Amino acid sequence: KCNLESAQMLNLDSSVDASLNLQSRPDVLTCTYWKAAIIWEGMFDPRLYDEMHKMKGSSVALTVFAVGRYLDAYLHTFLNSCEQHFMVGLPVTYYVFTDMPEKVPNIKLSPLRSMKVIKVEKNSRWQDVSMMRMKSISDVIESDIRHHCTHVFCFDVDQVFTGRFGSEALGDSVALLHAHYYHLPKHFYTYDRNPNSKAYMETGDFYYHAAIFGGSWKSVKALTEACYQGIMEDKQNNVEALWHDESHLNKYMVLHKPSKVLSPEYCWDTSIGFRSDIQVTRLLWAPKYYDTLRTL
Ligand code: UDP
Ligand code: MN
Q: Whose CA is nearest to atom 12 of ligand 1?
């Protein structure tokens, strides 16, 4: 059982976890060495989490980018599935970033939910579209989110919710175990190994997937600002991290440990096939059509 009563008690979200009596699971790692919970199905009572967060007045900003061809390919399915499964019962504001605001689908939102569309320029390289999200997210947290929401979750658009993705995932700083790496020895992790990049790291704790990260608005602002700075320094030095924003996210998370970690149940790739430890899939990778989507 994760001893959440020690160091992490200082952190409000972890004291929530402690008071809601997170259970362990025998077949998987449920606690990091710095005593952050790793959330798997069966560890928590969803009703208690929802009640607690409603009582505390938690409200969630979801950021998602649909630039260029990604809009038609994914956004409609993504948003519809959010309405079914993402933080149901809590106030949610979608922040949709796109170069074509007029093409954002008109989706009927449940009560307590709203959408803000923010126009961004289309970078010509997909790597830059992906990396520059860090800057846009940090800016919108400062100008808007911090005045309206307690928490922020940032998502890739090429995925679809298939099960509850609820308030148990909220925390001060939240990272996701990458479905392709969580069961592998560390030497397989694809950290950036170029000493000239700001994302350079030898070893770390886990390999985190940048398709989802979140936390309080304050900690997501700190994370996105730091990653953006690293990315810009790399550009000045004419280097690019191996996996772009994901490399910078992994570097940040090794220096600033997340207070909560999500299991790959929160972002599963069905092409991996059956795994007995994946008891539920809450969000699935959508098919990737790189050939057609990444040509401009
Ligand atoms: N993205 C976009 N348009 C692009 C490239 C990327 O909107 O031309 C956004 C989109 O939200 C996407 C995310 O950036 O999900 C990350 O890119 P991608 O999903 O292709 O990266 P991968 O999942 O392969 O790491
Ligand atoms: Mn993606």
A: 156
Buried b / exposed e over 114-133, threshold 16 CB at 10 Å, is eeeebebeebeebebbbbbb
ipTM over 0.95: yes
Q: Is residue 296 part of a domain?
A: no
Ligand number nearest to the C-alpha of 66: 1
In a 13 Å sphere around the CA of 144, the CA atoms on its Cβ side amount to: 17
Residues spanned by the domain of 147: 7-289
Q: What is the pLDDT of residues 150-192, one digit of tens each?
A: 999 999 999 999 999 999 999 999 999 999 999 999 999 999 9
**Which residues does a 6 A CB cutoff place in the pocket of ligand 1?**
65-68, 70, 126, 129-130, 156-158, 211, 288
Contact 68, 296 (CB under 8 A): yes
Cα(216) to ligand 2 centroid in Å equals: 23
Instruction: Give the CATH number for residue 61.
Output: 3.90.550.10
Our answer to whether residue 265 is catalytic in this structure is no
Domain total in the chain: 1
